[in-house]
Amino acid sequence: MSNCPTRQPMYENGSLSKATGDKTLRPGGFDLTDRLLTLCELSADSRIVDVGCGTGGTVEYLRDSGFAHAIGIDRSELLLQTGICRRPDLPLACAWSKSLPMASGHADAILAECSFSAMAGLDGALTEFHRVLRSGGRLALSDIYARNAEGLPALHSLPLSCGLRHAVTREQLTENLQAHGFEIAVWEDHSEMLKQLVGQMILAHGSMREFWSQSEPGTDPMELQIAVGKAKLGYHLLVAQKT
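Now predict its structure.
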């Protein structure tokens, strides 16, 4: 796709999938997906849009679980093609989060599992999510967040290809959601899931230094590790309602 960045992000370069597999490039896997679905109280005929769907693993899981109207959107043609090769019947489309190819009020729920922080133009994405969701529709996120705001400047200053460059605190995210017409109904901390993923990365790559070297080759891995530590990154799950 012509608008895609020239630098290959970690989600495409294989460093993350080496630890997680191709279907769920995130902490928690389908366990957190199930938690989000339960909290959203969705029915089988709910229209669910997975934004930042990657290879479509969650869309495949949803449709196999009876959610026949689940679709996936991602900006990476590479990841989408991997999913379509795996399951040619998956309804996946290439688009940016700030320009979703669907009518206003179409969706009952939007999922963004460890993808919101990686989206270019978060304000534009939230404006578009609000447009696409029906009145009272749910925005369901799981993602990284910073538990120490003082550590964010160092993290944001690094040349990163992943969502770490957009990490925010719980308070900042809450304010941003409210400013775009959403009210948080549920917030849960699942930082243990992030710790488990770090363990998987170490097993797959030998060390976090080696993982960072492969996933973010333009950044000094030690400097990155120090910045991550200062920000005290955690992992959250939230459900917000369109107001």
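Strands lie at 48-51, 71-74, 92-94, 107-113, 133-146, 182-189, 233-242.
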